[in-house]
Amino acid sequence: MTSQWHPDGPPQFVGLPIADQSSAVHVLAALGCALYYRVRTGIGQHIDISMIDSLYHLNDINVQVHTISGGQFIPGRMGSHHALVCPFGVFKGPQGWIVLCVLDRQWPYMVRAMGRPGLSEDPRFATGANRAKHQKELVPIIERWMQSFASDEAVLRVLEENRVPSAPVMTIVDTLSHPYFKAREMVRTVQDPSLGEVPIPGFQLKFSAFPELLNIQAPLLGEHGREVLQKVLAYSEAQIAELQAKSVLFSERR
Fold first, then answer.
1. What is the pTM of this model?
2. Domain total for the chain?
3. Domain boundaries, position 246
4. In this predicted structure, what is the pLDDT of residue 14?
């Protein structure tokens, strides 16, 4: 999870081109399904994917919760903590911020990690619904416990030992050297002809038949225009020269 934060306030999540990225992954999934259908049936098809639809698909319970709650709950911005579940959100640790995702089945593990088994017997915190109603009382209790440690790493170690879903809130810079992202090859370095070595996000889909990452390099502006016209469209040198003279075919070293 990545974000930026002000030293005196909770994390502010950074806007990313989520529509572009989510739509691209949906397209990839749709293409795979369509190609498989063609192999099985011999029939091709048109695929229609909208960026707005891809974003809308990211909603989980938000679409149905208004109806199933009898109109009592209207989904909206929740801030640092989930409105219906607690502890489920971003908590201030001794150094930075820590994310907890604790549902009813994890709650016994959470109180065990905190050394506070009595919290399970407290009527305010006995059920998920009650914890959500009383989160203004529960959140400070959890944060005080976290801040009793010397470091965020120490808090996370105890949470992991007790099987409590948790993670540190990191900046993008933090992820570049983080053991998880390095082990998963989610940060890789590529060679750019203008910038030299540049770190980029790795490929999130892992295939056992293709364990090695492809050697990729982004082309320069118009770098392959001449090659495509010659090899694919069989353009002559005269035709290519004419396109260059009209600035239709253009390339630049940047």
1. 0.73
2. 1
3. 219-254
4. 46
